[in-house]
Amino acid sequence: MADAKKNEAPAEGEAPKPKKKLLLFIIIGVLVVVLGGAGALFMMKKKSAEDEEAAEDEEAPPAKTAKAKKKKKDAHAAPPTFVKLDPFVVKLRSDEGAENYVQAVPELKLADAMVAEQIKQFAPEIRHKTLLILAGKKAAELSTPEGMQQLANQIRESINATLEGGKPDPAKEKLDVNEDGPVISVFFSSLIVQ
User: Fold this and answer.
1) Bridge pairing between strands 101-110 and 81-84
2) Contact in structure between 68 and 93 (CB atoms under 8 Å)
3) Tens digit of pLDDT for each residue in 56-107?
4) Stated pTM of the model
5) 57/65 Cα distance (integer angstroms)
6) How many other C-beta atoms can be found within 10 angstroms of the C-beta atom of residue 126?
7) Apex CA 25: angle with CA 21 and CA 29, to 5°?
């Protein structure tokens, strides 16, 4: 009988172990389901907020949309996009009767990579307006850094006006950088006056 009692005691001790394991598996399963549901709910709310923001952007006037996009760009601080225009060779205006020419290769710093596609679409108009700006210059005006910067600003404002469907703003031509337009600034990789 002593052996029977010894056999019964371990049997009673073993029974709670499987119940504890079962309870532990149930608790872990419930936690996984709850955490998975919370994660799914979080993702759906995040997606819903993004959809609402996109709908607001579509309904917002263009000026507000541009400002909102600018704020988003500042937050992400993406690297700028550069577009190199084809070289320009133009005869300059002259009072003395001497023939002077300029060869210029402008590069555009764009606010957004999507503007590069617009530049391609408006390329003939942009080239024409840039040629007119260059043809209206004198060699003396382009021989100074200030003259070159003024030329860059005039080209920038002309391109921005073309892309936005307006007229160039002479007040903005004095600024070195224009954060409001699609073209932030114009740089010359080559500018030769002869």
Assistant:
1) antiparallel
2) no
3) 655 555 554 555 555 555 545 678 899 999 999 999 988 777 889 999 999 9
4) 0.57
5) 6
6) 22
7) 170
Distance CA 27, CA 21 (A): 10
- Cα(53)–Cα(156) distance, integer angstroms: 31
User: Got the DSSP string for 127-176?
Assistant: HHHHHHHHHT-BHHHHTSHHHHHHHHHHHHHHHHHHHHTS---TTGGG-S
Q: In degrees to the nearest 10, what's the CA dihedral of 61, 62, 63, 65? A: 90
Total number of residues shown for the chain? 194
Strand ranges (DSSP E) for 33-96? 81-84, 88-91
Residue given tokens 């500042």 in the structure block: 74
